[in-house]
Design brief:
Helix content: 10-25%
Structural class: alpha+beta
Strand content: 25-35%
Order of helices and strands: EHEEHHEEEHEEH
Number of strands: 8
Pfam families: AtuA, AtuA_ferredoxin
Largest sheet: 4 strands, antiparallel
Strand order of the largest sheet: 2-3-1-4
Number of helices: 5
């Protein structure tokens, strides 16, 4: 199955402040100028309460300069008929993020005329930090479960059902090396066999995996085809347990 690695990947979840954002749309004559006036107002209101906060706020005008890395040339002709101002801020605490959204909503009554479609929000920002750590410095645990198996006709009986249970290494050693279920005549039997120990084989020949991620969260599962092989997998693969 390959040599044991001395380092493993550690994924550590860490908070990175609070994010606040707001959007507002403008269209028609001087829509760009009105959006820029909105940006100036929000930044001014925030600066009155939190001095120096503007360095944590970025903005762009969707439909004008949102796809450019730098400001566009003011001398270039433009024919924008509808645009949307978006402002984002990454703040130190929740109070600042909420205050930002309130100031943005105030554009309805205190901003240039014709603005609409305001949307705002705030959330805690979480990042996933990755680093290599020594295997010997990581505490980890492995558990396994065995699913309930029954015949398709749902005639459950103690002879043809394997009860669901959670077990650890001590129980794994007591499991039989072959599991045979009672089936109707002519039906194929389910047989399990341990992974050969006298030669190297690909990991996918003795187990399968499932993985998924959403944002900064990641989940990974390694499932042996033969349950008692979990003890052997522990010797070559380990995952840090994060609380």
């Amino acid at each position: 199955m390959g040599a044991v690695k001395h380092f493993i990947l550690l994924c550590n979840v860490r908070g990175k402040g609070w994010k606040g954002w707001g959007e507002i749309s403008y269209g028609g004559h001087q829509c760009v100028e009105r959006a820029k006036a909105d940006e100036f107002l929000v930044r001014s209101w925030m600066e009155e309460v939190y001095s120096g906060i503007n360095k944590h706020i970025i903005s762009d005008i969707i439909g004008l300069d949102s796809l450019k890395a730098a400001s566009i040339d003011e001398d270039l002709p433009r024919d924008s008929q509808d645009i949307r101002l978006r402002m984002d801020g990454l703040f130190e605490n929740k109070e600042q993020a909420i205050h930002f959204t309130k100031e943005f909503i105030a554009l309805y009554t205190n901003g240039p005329a014709g603005g609409g479609g305001i949307s705002t929000g705030h959330k805690k920002e979480i990042i996933l930090e990755k680093a290599l750590v020594k295997r010997k410095d990581v505490q980890w645990h492995v558990t396994a479960t065995r699913n309930k198996i029954m015949q398709s006709d749902d005639l459950a009986s103690p002879k043809n059902i394997i009860q669901t249970s959670s077990f650890h290494e001590s129980v794994l050693r007591s499991l039989p090396t072959e599991t045979t279920l009672d089936h109707k005549e002519g039906a194929a039997q389910i047989q399990l066999s341990p992974t050969p120990h006298d030669r190297k084989i690909p990991l996918y020949d003795c187990s399968h995996s499932r993985a998924g991620d959403k944002g900064d969260d990641i989940n990974f599962f390694l499932i042996p085809y033969f349950p008692p092989d979990i003890g052997r997998l522990k010797k070559i693969v380990s995952f840090p347990h994060l609380s």
